[in-house]
Amino acid sequence: MIGFTALELARVQFGFTMSFHIIFPAITIGLAAYLAVLEGLWLWKRDDTYLDLYHFWSKIFAVNFAMGVVSGLVMAYQFGTNWSFYSQFAGSITGPLLAYEVLTAFFLEAGFLGVMLFGWSKVGRGLHFFATVMVALGTMISATWILASNSWMQTPQGHEVINGVVVPVDWLAIILNPSFPYRLAHMVTAAMLSTALFVGASGAWHLLRGNSRPAVKRMFSMALWMVLFTAPLQVVIGDMHGLNTLKHQPAKIAAVEGHWSNTPGEGVPLILFGIPDMDAETTRYKVEIPRLASFILTHSWDGQIPGLKEFAPEDRPNSTILFWAFRVMVGLGSLMVLLGLYGAWARWRRRLFDSPVLTRFALWMGPSGVIALLAGWYVTEIGRQPWVVYGLMRTKDAVSTHSAMTLSLGLVILVAMYFAVFGIGIAYLLRLVKHGPLAHGEDVLEEAPSINQRPARPLSAVDEPLTPKSTES
Amino acid sequence: MGIDLPLIWFLIIGFGVMMYVIMDGFDLGIGILFPFIRSREDRDTMVNTVAPVWDGNETWLVLGGAGLMAAFPKAYAVLLSALYIPALGLLMGLIWRGVSFEFRFKANDAHKPFWDGAFMTGSFVAAFFQGVMLGAFINGHHVVDGVATGGVLAWLTPFNVFTGLGVVVGYALLGATWLILKTEGQLQRLVIRATTPILLATLASLLIVSVWTPLNHPAIAQRWFSLPNFLFFVPVPILVLLSTWATLRSLRAEPHAGPFIWSLILVFLGYSGLVISIWPNILPPDISIWEAAAPPQSLGFALVGALLIIPMILVYTAWSYYVFRGKVKAGEGYH
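^ Those are the sequences you sent over. The predicted structure of the assembly is below.
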């Protein structure tokens, strides 16, 4: 493809398929936890509004889960097709961790998902709640394996390199590598926050259309509570994650800040706006606040962090992309904090449900969680470059020997396929959201008569036709 | 150390692949048979026979991929990289088919033919590329510096295209005999009539591959025709002929489970012939399971999880097949 090298194309392909995939598991993690909370509250407070919300969101959960499974299929093979030398080098660590993820996911699906989606009339309330909690727990265990594997690539330890191949020595050290706890906390919180923003936007959409059923108000209110507490928490976790990165991957932080070199004895300014130029080794059009980066990153006004020029040119990640991806994430994060505070203020003024500014704000913030999550992943993954396993193997040595032509063909097929399949899937998901939660008894699906007391697939939990009824005439 | 971990993992992955071939085989076969069954109601019934189990069947494929990477990273890397295009085709076929499977239940009448077509194409493409990968696997890869020589189109040979079509026919046989087991009346009669030619085509493919393989590969020929290997191998073709005959016989009067069981045995025999031909290599012609294996620390660690969870998956699978036993009638859906 025009001007791209085979390595760049392979990276674009991985980034593209991964970006599509990660959205679904992230929402799965968040929704599973939300469903567990809803069911718990229903059992505790005996308020059927929670049950109505459970039924509504469990259908969306089912569709989202199915898309996660389908898009994940490709991931299990891509390490071999595109990153053959990586797999030969580090498959001994990535392979077992991914195998555990797959086993966990299947265990979850086999054991508890069926009960959760179709078991209402077959098991008691307590057992059903247990199944929901296990599904929520299972999604987080899955995330743990994936993030352990990814974090090991960022901050590898617990291994030896023997005959050019990684040999695991201490699995506990491999899993509990230095960046893992921060990355896990940051990702799980991001999943919760993204889901809260999605739920809040769904509520806002209905409120704006005059649908102010108790269930709609309840989900809008719950989502804003969640944003109020989770968004600032995420800022704190993000800060800690950043400090951890500074310790282990200083070049990544230098690139994120567009920081090229230090002036002796002077603090590092925070660049608000600028365009880092990798060739000229400078950041153009800078708008900066003196010493603020020092304060954020070293918690002292004249602490210094390594500048990009201290690293050999071939060891520098791309600052232009990192600088902006990071600012997209932080900018959206700040808006999330603002939304939480605005929601709290409106709640205090008893105008939570009839402030059009708040509902519009919440609606527009719907996709912001997912966008910030992707931007964050771009920061950490592109920031790891030029290494695939930090300090151990370069990305250019990891890629399979395909030509740019082959990879272009693969990419075109994947892009066409993904947009068709997941485009339809996401449109279908949004149609489900549009229906809104129904009050208890209105929902014919509730007793799941069409299931014939038999297990079924996640999508069987949803009766909604694929195309709107109006097109049938 | 007394435990041969690579061997255990070879058995686990071999078992997983066999489970996949047998179970996803018949449900891909349903899609492959779609062009021959025209009525909307019959097609719905066909799909309903596999609706409750098809996605469980595909779990074995994901498990196979992850297991291969964990246990034999070198084989995983070299094979998938050499088979980039067929692997992409297989995955796209499976995704396309999986999605159309779900959406054809939810689409309105105007859109249903589109999703039927997608289901058919996806099933065919997935089966064909599985067969191509099988052929390329038997053909073997010469590995230099961690790369299979031959380039990205090395898999495109007459033999591999033939094994691709062979697998399509074999899956059609599994699909047809599965339908004999699961349906009744007009649809079942239609399928019974179609089964004989499909069975003979499967037998012919097996025979042609069995003659073509040793002609192409002196190493395999030597393995087959030297003692004592020959004695292990000789029952396979005899049993193949026997089970073909048994399938034909069971088709005659009021067939039920017979043809499906016999076809499963037929496919299993083909599979065991494959294993005999390549053993102990995981990357034919010359890289053995011990050379391609991950370090024992990896094999042991992953084995704990596999031994804990695979039995549970098996119990669940058996239970769901038990729950869905019996004939599927027209208009009766699980979806």
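The first helix of chain A runs from residue 6 to 45. Chain A touches chain B through 72 residues (CB under 8 Å).

Shout if you want it in another format.
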